[in-house]
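Entry type: protein chain
Record version: 2
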Amino acid sequence: MEDAMNPTGTPVLRRVDDAPRPSGMPFEQTQQFQDVFTAAHEFLLNRIEDQRLDIASWAQDTVVKYVDAETASFVQEWRIPINEAEMRLVSSALVKELTGFGPLDDLLLDPEVEDILINGYQDVYVSCGGVLERATVRFCDNHHLLRIVRRILAPLGRRLDESSPMVDARLPNGGRLNAIIEPLSVTGPSVSIRKFRKDPFTPDELLARGTFDRAIHALLKAAVLGRCNIMISGGTSSGKTSLLNALACFIPHNERVITIEDTAELSLNHPHVVRLESRLGGFDGEGSVSIRDLVRNSLRMRPDRIVVGEVRGAEVLEMLQAMNTGHDGSMSTIHANSPRDALYRLEMLAGFAGFQGSESSLRRQIASAIDFIVQIARLGNGRRVIASITEVTGVGDNIITTQEMYRHEAYVDVDGRERDRWPGLGFHPHTHKLEPFRQFLREAGSALP
């Protein structure tokens, strides 16, 4: 039993030629791999510093060749007990560490991965198709994890340290990163990365994936073209942003759309979009620009439609006023478990924002502003579907009245396969904005199923 020493004489790797490896576990998931990788990384950094190399300016294939050669030299010099295939795995990990984001590289590039959730350096989970599963990658330790996160944040001008232990940032590829470290996170650094498709889903693609059926597709299209104000409600990772992106495909191209978000996530497939993003202030709050400020300013930018990525604060008052003063066709999302909960949440947010009127006047304003609430949900198998479509019809007995037009149901067909359907409840849309759609239904000789 012997310790390998780096060029400075510090023990960096315990060599045990016959060290047991858990049966069936891939080499890159073992502690031995982490030990070899850590020692090789330090060896490589010393070599780069000694040779005064600027590998950041090198082509990728040149970096790969250099790292391969140096890894082989390290393994031979320190007589590391790994074979050639294992050495290539170490070399590949070193390339990703030097030129990319280390263990996160493959996950960030994988189009099937929707979310990356890291609970300390050893626990990495990914969400694919709405299903959460443990990933096969890990970090050497929490310092390694923080090094990679800070490398991601550096070009964004954001920091993560004791004075700023929480960070929420938009990634260059359109994704979003949230990180929180000790002492706020008791179990070590916690990192959540939400990825977004390069090309957002279109309504036809969502239809093909079974998110809704043709009747709902027709209603949503008519609602957007008819300039109805739509609120998309749902839980975390239920598909609210994807649905909002898809609905924007129905907006006529001769209209000007302004999007307002905390962290820019929307990617509307529309030729005339102005994207606004709020800004955090300094340590004393100076220089901050809230979503409420942006909504207020957007009214002076000649918008045809205003799209608020998520309503969760005082901006609800400005959004409701905009919807009630000539900016029909606006859309937003809200975190709520049902359409009724969404209405309660709007009332609560307006109250927190300092609404000065009575409870009944607030409810009348909400009822006149919102035309439809589209509830979207993630099923147990990870699929996202529209759970219901509810129309806001007015106020009665000091309660906002609604009518549910469609509701999702799961059933088992004769072959034993689970299917989806959205039975209609027999109601025509109440709003005058959809009179052309009602006329179409009458001429077709059919009511909503």
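Comment: The chain has three domains: 18-99, 100-197, 203-446.
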